[in-house]
Specification:
16-stranded mixed sheet, three-stranded mixed sheet, 7 helices, 31 strands, 32% strand, carbohydrate metabolism, EC 3.2.1.-, signal, cellulose degradation, cellulose 1,4-beta-cellobiosidase activity
Length: 453
């Protein structure tokens, strides 16, 4: 909901470029997943993984000089947005050695901090590919479900192991923007409902103009542009809390925005943009059921489990249902225990009631609500798998009391998890849990009731 998507990184240069360098060959790790037509009838697909271009080494073309170091641009190579795209090249990745990314069979493990000979990497954002040059596009045209296994037993307070869909272009914007020479192969084209402005390149151009270095993240900043698109957060979670959250946008597809009119986490006016930054979330703890999810609870996060998300129907009538499978048992998401908010799934009625009871701004409805989310899902979305900490709100919106001045016993909706309001500070998370990992595996996609049970 308040996900800022500012990923810390301390590589020699970890940024998003549009030209292609030749110092490191880009070899995508392989990861299989399954497309199902009915229960017990699934076909294995040979997918690949690519890391977002924001993490990659960006250097002057034909040389080794960094175009971006820490949170500052090279003024010679990048005096303006267009020159930066012309002068700088993004290079291939050493997935395991530099980024702590390991793919094996149908499994992908992301390690939080990876220390190499010349760099330290923190967090990652990866995409599932259909080929070496195109992202896999998942189309939910009505009555589909998406299933995966997850092990986040090693993710305490302050972390987010996030698996979600965004309305990116399949080729990473390669055809749409002539100055983008890298495309999906090198992880370009990111967008989400926060209209992130920490991206180093947007629409094939640099984001150097207006760039302001972060005050609490030595590797990040905010530029003059942002990149917006619809977002379906299937899974934002650590071992303490989880939420499933659709974010509507109008327009749905990727679009570039200007400065604070972007809205979202990075802008002075959170609600100024074309997207809904808050979403309509279902977090069982926030909905009053505190014994359902966590270590030793009904869904025991000390062990691996299966997450099933069903999209039933189309348009405004679409329903988003959640099941878990663990220890041979299918466990339905619990019904809301908040008086006046009914059900255990996300529907237009649920969102109407929740926003009213929690007294939250209803930007989800303002940006087209479930009807627009259903349209985005039907058009096709890219699967993102990531691991990150939060330099804007310490992940308290997911796993603690937020806003922190609220009383979770009396202010409905402010209690989101058991973590202390002092938890989640990135400096603490990074020093205390450098070996944190999340593992996503056994991805399946198909008609309702075809992927589990």
């Amino acid at each position: 909901m308040y996900r800022p998507l500012t990923f810390a990184a301390t590589l020699l240069s970890v940024v998003r470029g549009q030209l292609v360098g030749t110092e490191t060959t880009e070899t995508h790790p392989s990861m299989t997943w399954q497309s199902c037509t009915a229960k017990g009838s699934c076909t294995t697909k040979n997918g690949k993984i690519t890391i977002d271009a924001n993490w990659r080494w960006l250097h002057v073309k034909g040389g080794y000089t960094n175009c971006y170091t820490g949170n500052e641009w090279n003024a010679t190579a990048c005096p303006d947005n267009k020159s930066c795209a012309t002068n700088c090249a993004v290079d291939g990745a050493d997935y395991r050695g530099t980024y702590g990314i390991t793919a094996s069979g149908n499994s992908l493990q992301l390690k939080f901090i990876t220390k190499g000979s010349y760099s330290t990497n923190i967090g990652s954002r990866t995409y599932l590919m259909a080929s070496d040059t195109a992202y896999e596009m998942f189309k939910f045209t009505g009555n589909h479900e998406f299933t995966f296994d997850v092990d986040l037993s090693n993710l305490p307070c302050g972390f987010n192991g996030a698996l979600y869909f965004v309305a990116m272009d399949a080729d990473g914007g390669l055809k749409k923007y002539s100055s983008n020479k890298a495309g999906a192969k090198y992880g370009t084209g990111y967008c989400d409902a926060q209209c992130p402005r920490d991206l180093k390149f947007i629409n094939g151009e640099g984001n150097v103009e207006g760039w302001i270095a972060s005050s609490n993240d030595e590797n990040a900043g905010v530029g003059g542009h942002g990149s917006c698109c619809a977002e379906m957060d299937i899974w934002e979670a650590n071992s303490v809390s989880t939420a499933v959250t659709p974010h509507a946008c109008s327009p749905i597809e990727q679009s570039r925005c200007e400065g604070d009119t972007c809205g979202g986490t990075y802008s002075a006016d959170r609600y100024a943009g074309v997207c809904d930054p808050d979403g309509c979330d279902f977090n069982s703890y926030r909905m009053g059921v505190k014994d359902f999810y966590g270590k030793g609870k009904m869904v025991d996060t000390s062990k691996k489990f299966t997450v099933v998300t069903q999209f039933i129907g189309t348009g405004e009538a679409m329903e988003i249902k959640r099941f878990y499978v663990q220890g041979g048992k299918t466990i339905a998401q619990p019904a809301s225990a908040i008086p006046g908010v009914e059900g255990n799934s996300i529907t237009t009625k649920f969102c109407d009631q929740q926003k009213d009871r929690f007294k939250d701004r209803y930007t989800y409805k303002e940006k087209g609500g479930t009807a627009n989310m259903a349209k985005a899902l039907a058009q096709g979305m890219v699967l993102v798998m990531s691991l990150w900490d939060d330099h804007y709100a310490n992940m308290l919106w997911l796993d603690s009391t937020y806003p922190t001045d609220k009383n979770p016993d009396s202010d409905l909706g402010s209690g989101r998890g058991e973590c202390e309001v002092t938890s989640g500070v990135p400096a603490d998370v990074e020093s205390q849990s450098p070996d944190a990992t999340v593992t996503y595996s056994n991805i399946k996609f198909g008609p309702i009731n075809s992927t589990f049970g």
